[in-house]
Amino acid sequence: MSNAPMHQEPPSPEPPFPEPLYLEPRLESALESLLKETAFLQGLVAALGSPLHILLPEQIASNAERFRDVFRRHQLTGRIFFAHKANRSSALVRRLAATGERVGAGLDVASLGELRHGLGAGFAGERVVATGPKSPEFLWLAARSGVTVNADGVQEVEEAARLVRAYGLPRVRLLLRLSEFQTPASGTRTLSRRSRFGTPVKALDTLLDAVERHRDALEPIGVGYHLDTTGLDEKATALEGCLRAMEELRIRGFTPRAVDVGGGFGTGYLAHAGQWDRYTSALTDAVMGGRPPLTWGGHGYGLRVENGTLKGSLALYPAYRSVAGPGYLDALLSRPAPCLGRPLGTLLLESMYELFAEPGRALADQCGLSLATVLEVRRAEAGEHLVRLAMNAGDVSLEDHGVLMDPVLLPQQDGRGHGRGEGPVGVHLMGNLCLESDLITRRRVCLPRLPRQGDLLAFANTAGYCMDFGATHAQQQPLARRVAVWQEERGTGGWRWMLDEEYWPVTRTRTDTGTDAGTGTDAGTGTDAGTGTDAGTGTGTPTGGPYA
Questions:
Q1: Helix residue ranges, H only, 271-351
Q2: N or C terminus of the chain with fewer C-beta within 10 Å?
Q3: How far apart, in whole angstroms, are the C-alpha atoms of residue 409 and residue 382?
Q4: Helix (H, G, I), strand (E, B), or coil: what is residue 356?
Q5: Which portions of the sequence form the region Disordered (predicted)?
Q6: Of 87, 128, 89, which Cα lies nearest the Cα of 105?
Q7: Of 324, 366, 387, which Cα lies nearest the Cα of 464?
Q8: Which residues contact 40 (CB under 8 A, 6 or more apart)?
Q9: What is the pLDDT of residue 512?
Q10: Whole-structure pTM value
Q11: d(CA 544, CA 535)
């Protein structure tokens, strides 16, 4: 046999990467500061595993204050209720329960479990509103606890009255949720979309008849709506319709005092409008065949081509939004009523009505991120880079909610660094399930360089619906653990952490003052290698302990 080396084909050249179509996440100061603490985050994942969700409870209190500022600007009273369904975190809910009278945030619960969680987190019944489909058990506990019930129809009204009489419960405060609003001048033309929630306004008389039959058991305190839309025009029509419905309640001898505008205030996920416009234009071009696909399998996110014609519509969340959250509420209140012509906030003020709002995504804005370890990086036959993560699509459900943004690459702190000359790269993110469909996102994401095994990818701003809403134990993969973090010295010091379920505002205050031995004194390891004697709190970089 010859000793000459066997001939080998040279590796195929790296396919040229087109100009990167970045979708950079919008980062406010707290998240931006946290993402700079790579060693801290790497240590948490090493101790607690991947995937890992990080919560910032102080941020949700700050967000509630911003919403309250809008109320003050329009001289309105009322309450902001956090839509609990957006996130299961105990830390976020407990921190909101601790907001004082200046903010006085409430909780919107949509299940018996959420109600029990909220009451256990410290919310009094009068600061809770029950929405969504309701079982008899859910209604019973809501009534027993003094919770306001957002009633969707006659059957819920009848069931609430039956429970009050059967079990000697206190009189239940009701909000009557309405839908399918019309303007008086439009006849039968419906100006707001249909909803599975609420009673159509044309059936309001029937609903009020049911409430009148049970005056001894029920107290209607107002009306509201739920609209699955970001359109200000539709919501302005609905709010004006609620004002008319309040007058119908007064005519029947009730004394309503609150109008509930629900949620849907939105969040801006991206930092740059230009990036969003450029990407959606490029996606359309790719679907039409004018450029290579930007997604796995040429997925069009609702767009398709039939006989050379573009069909469908883009089924994506508008990831860049110049007006969102508190700004959206301010815009709605400043908007002239479609028929009355005066600002809706002014009409609420002159009627001396309280305003209720139920933000979910908007109140959880910037309140968390999700971390995943890179398990494998390889090139497919077509030359595409595939990155497999210790995470699946259920752990960070960006795709389910149509949210597109790039993760932040957090390289290992081992001194090896990345190769010289590396530049922007597009990669497909694969999950850890044995399913072809387990893609973290169908979009090819852009990273500043190719990750390697052991690096972290951080998905920013996932606390609103994208963190645990779709999490499952599929294939016996573990659910992500949750950690609450905060900065010492009012946001200027080092970062501290605690298991989400162990976080209480009073505990955090004790650890900040150094009186809780659970955090130790050794810059993050305390007396128990990362957790002190509390096995659930720490500072700096956790390096061991019971979760290592």
A1: 273-287, 326-334, 344-350
A2: N
A3: 24
A4: strand
A5: 1-20, 509-548
A6: 128
A7: 366
A8: 34, 495, 524, 540, 541
A9: 58
A10: 0.89
A11: 10
Identity of residue 530: G
Report how far residue 5's alpha carbon sits from residue 136's, in angstroms, rounded to the nearest whole number: 78
What phi and psi values does residue 236 have, to the nearest 5 degrees?
-65, -40
Decide if 141 contacts 120 (C-beta within 8 A). Answer: no
Place of tokens 């619906």: 465
Residue 97 CA to residue 119 CA, distance in Å, equals 9
Is 25 buried (19+), middle (13-18) or exposed (0-12) by CB count in 10 A? buried
Q: What is the pLDDT of residue 525?
A: 36
Spans of the chain, pLDDT less than 50: 1-15, 188, 190, 420-421, 514-535, 543-548
Q: What is the pLDDT of residues 277-307, one digit of tens each?
A: 999 999 999 999 999 999 999 999 999 999 9
- The token duo for 20 is 């990167």
Tell me how far apart the alpha carbons of residues 61 and 284 are, in angstroms, rounded to a whole number: 40
Burial of 431-445, coded b for 16+ CB within 10 Å and e otherwise, reads bbbeeeebbbbbbbb
H runs (alpha helix) in 121-189: 136-145, 154-167
How close are the terminal C-alpha atoms of the chain, in Å? 53
| CA atoms of 369 and 361, how far apart (whole Å) | 13
198-228: b (≥16 Cβ within 10 Å) or e: bbbbeebeebbebbeebeebbbbbbbbbbbe
What are the Cα distances from residue 9, in Å, to 4, 6, 12, 13, 355? 15, 10, 8, 11, 71
Can you tell me which residue has the tokens 């040279």?
Answer: 10
- Which amino acid belongs to residue 137? E
User: Coil, strand, or helix at residue 498?
Assistant: strand
CA dihedral 402, 480, 435, 276 (to 10 degrees): 20
Let me know: does 443 contact 459? Beta carbons within 8 Å: no
pLDDT in tens, 376-386: 999 987 788 99
Query: If you search the block for the tokens 């919403």, which residue do you land on?
Result: 67
